[in-house]
Amino acid sequence: MLKRTIALLGFCIASSANTHAELGEAKSATATCPKTGVYLQVLGSGGPELNDKRASSAYVVWADGVAQVLVDLGNGAANNMGLAGVDISQVPIVLLTHLHSDHSADFAPLIKALFFTDRQTDLQVYGPTASKFFPDTETFVQRFVGEQGVYPYLQGFVNGNARYQIKAHNLTPSPQVQTLDTGEVKITAIDAEHGPVPSLAYRVEIDGKSLTFSGDNGGHSDNLIRLAQGSDLLVAHNAIPEGAKGVVVRLHMLPSRIGEISRDAQVKQVLLSHFMSRTVDQQAQTLAAINAFYKGPVEFASDMQCVEL
User: Fold this and answer.
1) Would 123 be classed as within a structural domain?
2) Using one digit for the tens of pLDDT, what is the confidence trace for 242-255?
3) Where in the sequence is the domain holding 158, given as residue range(s)?
4) What residue stretches are annotated with the Metallo-beta-lactamase domain (predicted)?
5) d(CA 235, CA 161)
6) Terminal CA-to-CA distance of the chain, rounded, Å?
7) Distance from C-alpha of 44 to C-alpha of 115, rounded to nearest angstrom
8) 274 near 45, Cβ under 8 Å?
9) Closest by alpha carbon to 144, among 112, 170, 117?
10) How far apart are CA 73 and CA 105, in angstroms?
């Protein structure tokens, strides 16, 4: 009887675990990526909600074990950088797709942590220009660590007194592809069409590999298709389910639109991220909507996951 009870209990636990996985709960993943090759690591695959057991949007691009680019800094990103082994004293570039808090909240923890490193080179931070309800990226940085900012004791990093400086750059969202002056890593950007929110999609090219980040993106034009053309990986945000209506469709792509864009851009693989309660348990429906147009590999992201390009 006892053996039977234990067996039944084990079955229930296993069934419960499988159910959670099917519902899209964040799965555990290896914390560190391999030291050779180009990898995308997901530092945060969630959105602005707090009950999804995920960090908010954040990614790091690795090349031969060196973190080359950080893309977005949503809440939870700073902690996961530590788990991933990111040497923040060496990361040269931060790309902010837009300034919603679930994409930028961990900027301040990053700067504070840098205080305790031996970093000597400037940190380049790129992001969008301003609108009525959002500052531009230069002002965003100043409001965190400037003389009149929330953390004025860190102002040395923007007023010339510290050993390195935060160099903020404003990019105007435009339907024309912009090329950033970023040295060996080629980075291009385009308007992400996130409703009234100034927002950018980015393409990163390094060591012969390319990956495109949709950011929060309405996908209403061919902007993302042109930016992502031929990418080894498209990171697409899955914030709304197929069949969604209303204002959210101005802000985010339907899964079917992700499929159309992936097909037309001829990307090699798609990684879905930025899950919310309205999409996290819709994986089967989401995949079906995408596969109606795109026949390549599609994966659902989890925090700390490494994807080889």
Assistant:
1) yes
2) 999 999 999 999 99
3) 29-308
4) 55-274
5) 38
6) 52
7) 23
8) yes
9) 112
10) 6
**Euclidean distance between CA atoms 261 and 183, whole angstroms:** 29
How many domains does the chain fold into? Answer: 1
CA distances from 12 to 22, 24, 25, 288 (A): 15, 19, 18, 29
Cα 168 to Cα 136: distance, rounded to the nearest angstrom: 10
Asked whether residue 285 is domain-assigned, the answer is yes
- 24 part of a folded domain: no
Strand partners, 295: none
Closest CA to 55 of 106, 99, 111, 110: 106
Q: Are 180 and 188 in contact (CB under 8 A)?
A: yes
Please tell me whether residue 5 adopts helix, strand or coil conformation: helix
Q: Which residue has the tokens 């067996």?
A: 7
Angle at CA of residue 58, ends 55 and 62, nearest 5°: 125
The list of the chain residues with pLDDT below 70 reads: 1-30
3-state helix, strand, coil in the chain (%, to 5): 30, 25, 45
Residue 4: in which H helix or E strand, if any? helix 2-22
**Residue 25 near residue 77 (C-beta atoms within 8 A):** no
Give pLDDT, residue 30: 61
pLDDT digits (tens, 9 = 90+) for 113-145: 999 999 999 999 999 999 999 999 999 999 999
Give this prediction's pTM: 0.90
Q: What is the DSSP letter of 63?
A: E
pLDDT at 29: 59
Would you say residue 144 lies in a domain? yes
Q: How far is CA 5 from the centre of its chain?
A: 45
Q: How far apart, in whole angstroms, are the C-alpha atoms of residue 97 and residue 213?
A: 9
Q: What are phi and psi of 138, to 5 degrees?
A: -60, -45
Per the structure block, which two tokens stand in for 145?
């660590």
CB-based contacts of 240: which residues, under 8 Å, 6+ apart? 248, 249, 251, 252, 253, 254, 276, 278, 279
For residue 218, give the nearest of 234, 238, 191, 195 by alpha carbon.
195
Question: What is the rounded distance in angstroms from the CA atom of residue 129 to the CA atom of residue 140?
Answer: 10
Tracing tokens 């802000």 back to the chain, one arrives at: 251
